[in-house]
Amino acid sequence: MAKQVFINGDFVEEDKAVLHFRDLSVQRGYGVFDFFRLVGNEPLFIEDHLDRFYLSAEGLHLPITFSRQEIKNIILELIKRNNMPGPGIRLQLTGGYSEDGFTAAKPNFIVSQQSFASPAKEQIEKGLKLLSYPYQRQLSRIKTIDYLMAIWLQPVLKEKGFNDALYHHDGLITECPRNNFFMVTSDDVLVTPAENILAGITRKKLLELARNSFKVEERPINLDELKEAKEAFITSTTKQILPVMQIDETILPERKMTMELLQLFQSCYKC
Amino acid sequence: MAKQVFINGDFVEEDKAVLHFRDLSVQRGYGVFDFFRLVGNEPLFIEDHLDRFYLSAEGLHLPITFSRQEIKNIILELIKRNNMPGPGIRLQLTGGYSEDGFTAAKPNFIVSQQSFASPAKEQIEKGLKLLSYPYQRQLSRIKTIDYLMAIWLQPVLKEKGFNDALYHHDGLITECPRNNFFMVTSDDVLVTPAENILAGITRKKLLELARNSFKVEERPINLDELKEAKEAFITSTTKQILPVMQIDETILPERKMTMELLQLFQSCYKC
Prior knowledge:
The structure is a homodimer.
Chain A: E1 4-7, E2 10-13, E3 18-20, H1 24-28, E4 31-36, E5 38-39, E6 42-43, H2 46-59, H3 68-82, E7 88-94, E8 109-114, H4 121-126, E9 128-134, H5 148-160, E10 164-169, E11 172-173, E12 180-184, E13 189-192, H6 201-213, E14 215-218, E15 221-222, E16 231-236, E17 240-247, E18 250-251, H7 256-269
Parallel strand pairs in A: 9-10, 9-17, 13-14
Antiparallel strand pairs in A: 1-2, 1-8, 4-7, 5-6, 7-8, 10-11, 11-15, 12-13, 12-16, 16-17, 17-18
C-alpha cells in the first residue's frame, strides 16, 4: 500500500497530499513545523516536540484545531498505517487559504512521515567544516518554515568547500541553519549559546545529560573564542551529535568530549 | 467559465491549481514572485516586472525554463481566457519538489490573475499611520516570498492602531513590508532610500516623473529626520502613491507634493 499522509481531516496517499497555491505558505512563506524521530515505530521526545509545535503555532497566531491527544492519535495511526520504522514525523501548520493573500486564515495541517539521512560513520569521524556567516534568524524561538538564507547559502558553501554555515550576529555565535552549536573550551567547559536561537530538543536532552559529567555553561560565545576552542559539535534531531573539525580557518582536532556525549546520548535514548 | 490559472505547462481551473506539500515553498518558504497591474486588459510595466522576476529567480538560483517571450504569451493567453479586466497578474516560482526537503529542485511555475483592493478615496484623504519597527528584510533586492515578519506584525499593528510598519535598521529607514517609502523635507526635497530595499517598479517610474518637477535625492533617511518631514508617502503596484499622515507620534499634515505626484502618475500611465 502506498505511503499515507494526514492532511486536515483525512489520511490520503502521499501523492494526493496537495495544497492550493493560494496557501499562505506558498504565497508568503508563512507557516510552522516540527520534526521528530521514530526509534523503530516509537516517537522520540514526542512531548517536547508537541510542546514546541504548539508554542510555534501560537507564536505565529495560527490556531491548531486538533487537541494534543487528537494529534497524538493521528501520529500513532499514521505510524500504524505506514509501518515504516525509522524515519521521522513532520508536523506542519500553514498560514491557510488567505482571502487577500496576506492575512492568515484557517491553517492547513499536515502530518507526514519523512525519511532522512543519519550521518554516516565516515562523516562522524571526519567532522564538519563550518563557515561563519553574519545572520540572525527572525523570530528565532519559533520553528517557522523560513529557511530562505539557509537554502540560499548552499551553493555558496559548496563552492568554498564548507558543509554548513555557523550564524553569528553582533560578534556572537548563535546557531547553524538547522542545528544548535556547542563548543568545548581549553579548560573543558561545555558552552552553548542560549539567546536568539531555536530551542532544540536534542540540545535540551544533551544538556540534561552533560550536566551530570561536565561543567556546562549556557552563555553567548564570541566569534574570537572559537580560535581557542578544543572541540565543537552541532546537535539536531536528524544529526544527533556531530563533531565539527573546522570553523573558517581554525582546525579543531580533538573530539573526546563530543564522542563521549554522543555515546552517552545514544545509549541513554536507545537511538 | 471558471477562472483559469497557468501551472507548469497547463491552463487549469483555479480550484485545480495545487502543489504537493513537499514543494520547497511549503516546506521551507523558498520561492520568488512578482505582481503587476492590468489597465483594462493591458499589463502595466510588464517589461520591468519581467526583468525583476528573472533577477529574483536568478538570485535564488532557481531556473526559469520558459523564455521571456513564452511567459509573455502565457500572460496574454491567461488574460484572454479570463477576460477579467483590472486585477493584477502574479508570477510565482517555487523551490520545487525537493528530494531531501532542503535542496532546491525543478521549480513550479504559476501564473494567476488576482484581484486586489485599490485604496479607497477616503483612505487617500485620510493617509496612513505607520509604526517604525527595527527590521531588515533578508536578501532585500530579491522579491522572495518571505513576508514572515510582515504577517506576524499585523495583529501587533492593529492593536496599536497603526496601518502598517516602517522598517528601519541601524537607525536608517528602509521600506514598508510591501511598499517603498518617500519623504518630503521641509525645503521641498523628495527623498527616498536606495539601499537595502526592494527596487519597486512604481518607485522607479515615480522617480522618473518626479525628477522633471522636483529636487530628488536617493539616500539613507535617518529615523530622526522624520520628525522634520513635511510630507511622506508610500508607493507600490497595488497602492500606487498613498499619503502617510502619521509616523509613530509624528503627524505629517501636508500632502501637496504627494497629491501632485499621484495625479501626475495616474494621468501619465492612465491607471
